[in-house]
Amino acid sequence: MALFTDGAFNCLSEHLKDVPPDVRASARLVQVPINPLSAILEKHQVQKVDFLNIDCEGNDLAVLRSNDWSRWKPLVICVEDHAESWQQSETVRFLASVGYSLKYRAVFSSVFLPNEIALSLSKSRGLEPIV
């Protein structure tokens, strides 16, 4: 992983090419173990996830894909998504495929709820889902 004084540029070394050259020169490389989300949850014997927040420096979708969705279905997921067309992003499509709806958006964070909860909230409060 490449670390910078300005943490906004922190990234995996494979993404260093996307960092401006003048900033790239100050990178400090460190080794960080990478494990699938499902392995981390299993190792720590997590039974239930109420809130899952993912901000993994451009690897957010890979983290989501590494979960065992048949075992762990968080009640709320907040994930960083820099896609220009965030309503149709890969993250939105992937989470829709495992039963989630995009419910809220704040700057680069998207908040997802399981479809049944999103639909229930929409009906009870007269709110429409974003997608």
What can be said about this structure in brief?
The protein is an alpha+beta fold. It has helices at 21-24, 37-43, 60-65, 90-97, 115-125, and strands at 2-3, 28-29, 51-54, 76-80, 100-106, 109-114.
Keywords:
single chain, 131 residues, alpha+beta, 2 domains, two-stranded antiparallel ribbon, 5 helices, 27% helix, globular
Task: Describe the model.
The protein is an alpha+beta fold and 131 residues long. It has 2 domains: 1-32, no CATH class; 35-125, no CATH class. Helix content is 27%, strand content 20%. The protein is built from 5 helices and 6 strands, in the order E-H-E-H-E-H-E-H-E-E-H. The chain has helices at residues 21-24, 37-43, 60-65, 90-97, 115-125, and strands at residues 2-3, 28-29, 51-54, 76-80, 100-106, 109-114. The strands form 2 sheets. Strands 3-4-6-5 form a 4-stranded mixed beta sheet. A two-stranded antiparallel sheet has the order 1-2. Strand 5 and strand 6 form a beta hairpin. The longest helix has 11 residues, at 115-125. The chain is globular. The mean pLDDT is 87.
Topology, element by element:
Blueprint: E1 2-3, H1 21-24, E2 28-29, H2 37-43, E3 51-54, H3 60-65, E4 76-80, H4 90-97, E5 100-106, E6 109-114, H5 115-125
Parallel strand pairs: 3-4
Antiparallel strand pairs: 1-2, 4-6, 5-6
For the secondary structure, the number of strands is: 6
| Strand line-up in the sheet with most strands | 3-4-6-5
Distance between the termini: 34 Å
Give the total of domains: 2
Overall form: globular
Mean pLDDT: 87
Low-confidence stretches: none
Biggest β-sheet: count, sense, barrel? 4 strands, mixed
SSE series: EHEHEHEHEEH
Structural class: alpha+beta
Number of helices: 5
Helix percent band? 25-40%
Q: Which percent range describes the beta-strand content?
A: 15-25%
Q: Calculate Rg over CA atoms.
A: 17 Å
